[in-house]
Amino acid sequence: MRMTSRKKEILSYFEPDNAKWVTGEIGYPPFDVSGVAYLLHGITSHDNRHQIESTRRTLEAMTKDGLLEKVISYEQRQDTTQSGGGAGVWCNCSRYGLPGSCNLRRDDGGRRDAIEGEAVRVE
Fold first, then answer.
1. Which residue of 36, 51, 62, 118 has the fewest CB atoms within a 10 Å radius of its CB?
2. Are 73 and 43 in contact (CB under 8 A)?
3. Superkingdom of this entry's organism (predicted)?
4. What's the pTM?
């Protein structure tokens, strides 16, 4: 594995010092490919398929090397042919985070280790 400057920059997005800025730009980890491409290349990445594919390949290589973990989620996304008023399309989305931080657990009820009560997100 070669630790390139691009990989170092991507890993820096997960550091606590950068958390406020990164979450303000693209949200909380795990990050999707288009969000990381935006941080690396700016707004022009949305119109440049090469930059998005290059970012995806780098994230996949980092996953293969054990630097990141990949999780697939089913999300609603805006289709590239839609304007702002479109409802979007549902698709599988790859998200990348630090190893051990992307575990998704489905709550089927009746779990012994689940905490009773109500959950509230604090912003």
1. 118
2. no
3. Bacteria
4. 0.73
